[in-house]
Specification:
Ribosomal Protein L22, Chain A; 3 strands; 34% helix; 115 residues; three-stranded antiparallel β-sheet; alpha+beta; 3 helices; elongated
Length: 115
Protein backbone atom coordinates (compact mmCIF):
# COMPACT_ATOMS: atom_id res chain seq x y z
CA UNK A 1 0.00 0.00 0.00
CA UNK A 2 1.20 3.47 -0.76
CA UNK A 3 -0.12 6.80 0.44
CA UNK A 4 0.38 10.20 -1.12
CA UNK A 5 0.36 13.80 0.01
CA UNK A 6 0.80 16.92 -2.11
CA UNK A 7 1.56 20.52 -1.36
CA UNK A 8 1.14 23.16 -4.04
CA UNK A 9 2.12 26.80 -4.40
CA UNK A 10 4.70 26.70 -1.60
CA UNK A 11 6.45 30.06 -1.47
CA UNK A 12 9.98 28.67 -1.38
CA UNK A 13 12.20 28.19 -4.37
CA UNK A 14 12.46 24.54 -5.49
CA UNK A 15 16.22 24.95 -5.80
CA UNK A 16 16.42 25.66 -2.07
CA UNK A 17 14.17 22.73 -1.03
CA UNK A 18 15.57 19.93 -3.20
CA UNK A 19 18.71 19.29 -1.09
CA UNK A 20 16.53 18.68 1.98
CA UNK A 21 14.23 16.36 0.03
CA UNK A 22 17.27 14.42 -1.21
CA UNK A 23 18.44 13.81 2.37
CA UNK A 24 15.19 12.16 3.51
CA UNK A 25 14.43 10.22 0.32
CA UNK A 26 14.35 6.46 1.02
CA UNK A 27 14.44 6.84 4.81
CA UNK A 28 12.00 5.72 7.46
CA UNK A 29 9.26 8.34 8.02
CA UNK A 30 9.96 8.51 11.76
CA UNK A 31 13.69 9.13 11.14
CA UNK A 32 12.91 11.75 8.50
CA UNK A 33 10.50 13.62 10.80
CA UNK A 34 13.08 13.61 13.59
CA UNK A 35 15.75 14.93 11.22
CA UNK A 36 13.46 17.68 9.90
CA UNK A 37 12.44 18.67 13.44
CA UNK A 38 16.07 19.20 14.45
CA UNK A 39 17.06 20.98 11.22
CA UNK A 40 17.56 24.68 12.15
CA UNK A 41 16.27 25.98 8.80
CA UNK A 42 12.77 27.45 8.57
CA UNK A 43 12.22 26.39 4.96
CA UNK A 44 11.91 22.67 5.89
CA UNK A 45 8.54 23.30 7.60
CA UNK A 46 6.48 22.68 4.40
CA UNK A 47 8.28 19.35 3.84
CA UNK A 48 7.64 18.34 7.44
CA UNK A 49 3.93 19.23 7.19
CA UNK A 50 3.55 17.28 3.95
CA UNK A 51 5.28 14.22 5.42
CA UNK A 52 3.07 14.35 8.53
CA UNK A 53 0.02 14.54 6.26
CA UNK A 54 1.07 11.44 4.32
CA UNK A 55 1.66 9.56 7.59
CA UNK A 56 -1.77 10.66 8.84
CA UNK A 57 -3.33 9.42 5.57
CA UNK A 58 -1.77 6.00 6.15
CA UNK A 59 -2.95 5.86 9.76
CA UNK A 60 -6.48 7.03 8.95
CA UNK A 61 -7.04 4.77 5.94
CA UNK A 62 -5.37 1.53 7.10
CA UNK A 63 -4.21 2.05 10.67
CA UNK A 64 -0.52 1.83 9.71
CA UNK A 65 1.83 3.36 12.28
CA UNK A 66 4.57 5.88 11.41
CA UNK A 67 7.31 3.38 12.35
CA UNK A 68 6.17 1.04 9.56
CA UNK A 69 6.37 3.63 6.77
CA UNK A 70 9.23 4.48 4.43
CA UNK A 71 9.51 7.35 1.93
CA UNK A 72 9.47 5.77 -1.50
CA UNK A 73 9.33 8.99 -3.52
CA UNK A 74 9.58 12.69 -2.74
CA UNK A 75 9.54 15.34 -5.45
CA UNK A 76 10.01 19.08 -5.42
CA UNK A 77 8.88 20.49 -8.76
CA UNK A 78 8.79 24.01 -10.06
CA UNK A 79 5.54 25.93 -9.77
CA UNK A 80 4.51 29.26 -11.25
CA UNK A 81 6.79 32.25 -11.03
CA UNK A 82 5.92 35.82 -10.07
CA UNK A 83 7.83 38.28 -12.21
CA UNK A 84 8.13 41.91 -11.25
CA UNK A 85 10.54 44.76 -11.85
CA UNK A 86 12.74 46.68 -9.45
CA UNK A 87 14.89 49.67 -10.09
CA UNK A 88 18.40 48.89 -11.24
CA UNK A 89 21.54 50.87 -11.91
CA UNK A 90 21.40 53.93 -14.17
CA UNK A 91 17.59 53.97 -14.31
CA UNK A 92 17.19 50.49 -15.72
CA UNK A 93 14.52 48.03 -14.65
CA UNK A 94 15.75 44.65 -13.43
CA UNK A 95 13.42 41.67 -13.47
CA UNK A 96 12.91 39.88 -10.16
CA UNK A 97 11.58 36.32 -9.95
CA UNK A 98 9.66 34.94 -6.97
CA UNK A 99 9.68 31.19 -7.43
CA UNK A 100 7.03 28.82 -6.10
CA UNK A 101 7.14 25.04 -5.93
CA UNK A 102 4.85 22.03 -5.95
CA UNK A 103 5.82 19.09 -3.73
CA UNK A 104 4.60 15.52 -3.50
CA UNK A 105 5.56 12.58 -1.32
CA UNK A 106 4.66 8.90 -1.54
CA UNK A 107 5.11 6.70 1.52
CA UNK A 108 4.62 2.97 1.62
CA UNK A 109 4.56 0.26 4.22
CA UNK A 110 7.83 -1.56 4.87
CA UNK A 111 7.66 -5.19 3.92
CA UNK A 112 9.35 -7.90 5.99
CA UNK A 113 11.62 -9.03 3.14
CA UNK A 114 14.91 -7.39 2.33
CA UNK A 115 15.70 -6.79 -1.35
Amino acid sequence: MQFESKSKFVRVSPYKLRPYADVIRGKNVEQALNWLATCPVKKVIPIEKMLKSAAANAKHQNGIEVKELVISDIRVDEGPMFRYYKAGAMGRANIQRRRLCHMSVIVKKVTGKKD
